Amino acid sequence: MEAPICIRPAILADAGIISRIIERSIRIGCALDHRNHPSLVSDWIGQQSADFISARLADPHFYLCIALLADKPVGVGMAQAGGDISLCYVQPESFRRGVGRALMQDLEGWLRVRGVLHADLNSTRTGRAFYRRLGYRESAPPFEYQGLQTLPMHKPLASPV
């Protein structure tokens, strides 16, 4: 039987593991996007350093959460108080096990509690189908950002019950 997925708020001590989860997910899971181009991979990973993560953990306008599977960190998500979902990364060996969906549900719940009426994100080609399954729709034409094709997406959030 599959272990349940547990989502918890991230703490400052998690910055290193969050950075490592992001790096593995980008290197292995997002190869379609970066095509193993060394500078694209390096730039993308560099934007998600432990220092970047630590700064977001200290900022009350950001919420970071960690997904645990059998008490092992396997995914991370981040949202901004204004409604932007900044990241959702899962360890490649935990793909298609519900981890990304659980992270997104937690992030959307955090936004709803703050009265946010819709969530916005920028998807890569790799994530597009995943976000569509969660109810996100394209909100603008794709654009290139630091060598990567990015697709703005939007989802209305139901009010908290």
UniProtKB/TrEMBL annotation:
Residues 5-158 form the N-acetyltransferase domain. SUPFAM superfamilies: Acyl-CoA N-acyltransferases (Nat) (SSF55729). PROSITE patterns: GNAT. Keywords: Acyltransferase, Transferase. This is GNAT family N-acetyltransferase. It comes from Pseudomonas tensinigenes. The lineage of its organism: Bacteria, Pseudomonadati, Pseudomonadota, Gammaproteobacteria, Pseudomonadales.
